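Key idea: predict the complex, not the pieces.
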Amino acid sequence: MQDERAGADGLPTYADVARAAERIAGTAHRTPVLTSRTADAMTGAKLFFKAENLQRAGAFKFRGAYNAISALPEAVRARGVLSFSSGNHAQAIALASRLLGIPATIIMPADAPAAKVAATRGYGAEVVLYDRYSQDREALGREIAGPRGLTVIPPFNHPDVIAGQGTLAQELIETVGPLDVLVACLGGGGQLAGCALAAAELSPGCRVIGVEPEAGNDGQRSFHAGRVVTIPVPRTIADGAQSTALGDLTFAIIRARVAEIVTVSDAQLVETMRFFAGRMKLVAEPTGCLAAAAVLQGLVDVWDKRVGVVISGGNVDLATFARLTGEAA
Amino acid sequence: MQDERAGADGLPTYADVARAAERIAGTAHRTPVLTSRTADAMTGAKLFFKAENLQRAGAFKFRGAYNAISALPEAVRARGVLSFSSGNHAQAIALASRLLGIPATIIMPADAPAAKVAATRGYGAEVVLYDRYSQDREALGREIAGPRGLTVIPPFNHPDVIAGQGTLAQELIETVGPLDVLVACLGGGGQLAGCALAAAELSPGCRVIGVEPEAGNDGQRSFHAGRVVTIPVPRTIADGAQSTALGDLTFAIIRARVAEIVTVSDAQLVETMRFFAGRMKLVAEPTGCLAAAAVLQGLVDVWDKRVGVVISGGNVDLATFARLTGEAA
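Result:
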């Protein structure tokens, strides 16, 4: 099936996902698809968990980062890239840049956890710290990027980032066959939009559902309002989904391709982390549990269906993980 | 290569492993093989982790339990099975029995963790509690098994249990190709012996190495002494490797097929649990970390080699996991 929209209005299409898959092949992990009879029994569904917590740098973000940097014209790429992030995107950009042999600059808040700064530096990136209370990181980014000719790679609102994230759904459907439902995690929308592109092509009729934190339901509100709604920085343990608004590209794809957006509470995320650790022997970060929390706790209709569920990442420090999962439920 | 020893002296052979693979196909998980560039960089090797913590009931034990019960003549099997264990073998027997529709009786110490008793009952087994200070569990087992016609399935010293465990190495080598070294965890020797049978057939020349807890080095001592050495119950966090002696079958295979047995400390096991959780996003139980601890901490020669490493199980309660991994290193 050809996508009739191909390229019009700057939105990525399935063809971009397929090209991304070629670019990342052999570099990104083809992560395993895991199943759990316990989870199936809890839900009455056949669940296929795509374990992106086992991806390089610990999250699906590596797919989009590596694809976006690889797609740059060689001369542009050689000058280097810049990104703003204190989270998984930063580490993904840093690792992808190192693998492609180009310099990466990451703008991080001065009060970011020392471990995250160290990890990003550990991948060879230059980290520029800024004061998040007095400095505008985007202005600072432009100041640094301009003279050096660095290309800014945003965390989600970019066609090649979206297309890269879509490869996870492509692999999932290739591995297990068509799905009735695909449930993805939703922050800025790169994962959800990319997965929706892949599902529409490879599993037509599949209902694609996004799950975001209750406190950060800008996606759900935007979906219902028909325009991008911006909210204050949400308070949630899902630190990878604290974005305040979808991007115009991710919103356009989500609006056209996604069936439903639901929200889960922090308590439901913790319960899901405990399920993954106790029953499936996996470390998932809170944000990585969004999709599974909605499915395991009956917030979406999966009865008797074949359901893909994205575990988006596993980057949680061990002390936090212990605190969240180690106490009696 | 035909195994010249086939069947002589009651030892299982590779043919038994191949038959076990057929019996468990579609019932046991074909667990993923995971890789980590970080681990490769730490060791200078190419490491292939066989993730049996993702096996059904959380450990490789399901392979041997299901194989041994399946192999019983139908009329014998129908009467049911009995086992002694407070650990992974008990849960494996309970689950395998349920799947095969036969009754299972498990003899467990009265002071076993309530969670383990509940899990075993949860799989549908009848649990008989005994006082480990005043009662002989084997005598009690015979008392119960005899009149009911139950077949006792021991945790390791049984040809079909050994052959079943060997299927994990068979799958690993089938998936990644020949190995230079295969490192397995060693308690009573079922896993190590089974893996050695598979490796000898499928990857001739592969050095098979067993790893046991420092405090419970009966395997190493037996290996060097040329006879089965019995030790007191060892104090170690590797609760799945607190056996006091190899069996005659496991010892005979290990002596003939294994290159080396090394030991690791509890501190090294904890460090390895932290590595798995923090870097590979996996929950592994202490016993499940034996093989990896020896490899990651340089106790075996793996430089520039292709190395299989068994992660044998993930059954650790979350509070213990949090306590062991959540504190600063």
